[in-house]
């Protein structure tokens, strides 16, 4: 996403909120997947639910999902026109 934005507009920074939103969605899904699978490790590190408990993992996942909206809300003040955003 960042490389495409840079290729089209000459800078990647405009796409940072969207890139962050995608990464947050990915990480939230991994936290949830570890809960569902009752996984002990992810990339050789203790999973969130094993370290913080299931409720803690759900809250962490929820916070990441809510932050997606905060990141995307940054486009309210963008200089990009609607056709360029599409």
Compose a concise summary of this entry.
The protein is mostly helical. Helix content is 70%, strand content 5%.
Plain-language structure description:
With 86 residues, this protein is mainly α. It is built from four helices and two strands. It has helices at residues 2-9, 16-37, 48-73, 82-85, and strands at residues 41-42, 45-46. The protein has a two-stranded antiparallel ribbon. The longest helix is centred in the C-terminal third of the chain and has 26 residues, at 48-73. The two termini are 14 Å apart.
Layout of secondary structure:
Blueprint: H1 2-9, H2 16-37, E1 41-42, E2 45-46, H3 48-73, H4 82-85
Antiparallel strand pairs: 1-2
Number of helices: 4
- Strand arrangement, major sheet: 1-2
Anisotropy-based shape: elongated
Order of helices and strands: HHEEHH
Structural class: mainly alpha
Query: What integer is the average pLDDT?
Result: 91
- Helix content class: 55-70%
- Which percent range describes the beta-strand content? under 5%
Distance, first to last CA? 14 Å
Round the Cα radius of gyration to an integer and report it: 16 Å
Describe the largest sheet: 2 strands, antiparallel
The unreliable regions are: none
Strand segment count: 2
List keywords for this structure.
single chain, 86 residues, mainly alpha, two-stranded antiparallel sheet, 5% strand
């Amino acid at each position: 996403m960042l490389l495409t934005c840079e290729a089209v507009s000459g800078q990647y920074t405009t796409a940072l909120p969207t890139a962050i939103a995608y990464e947050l969605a990915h990480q939230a899904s991994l936290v949830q997947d570890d809960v569902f699978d009752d996984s002990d490790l992810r990339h050789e590190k203790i999973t969130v639910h094993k370290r913080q408990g299931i409720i803690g993992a759900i809250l962490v996942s929820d916070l990441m999902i809510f932050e997606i909206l905060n990141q995307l809300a940054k486009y309210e003040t963008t200089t990009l026109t609607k056709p360029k955003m599409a």
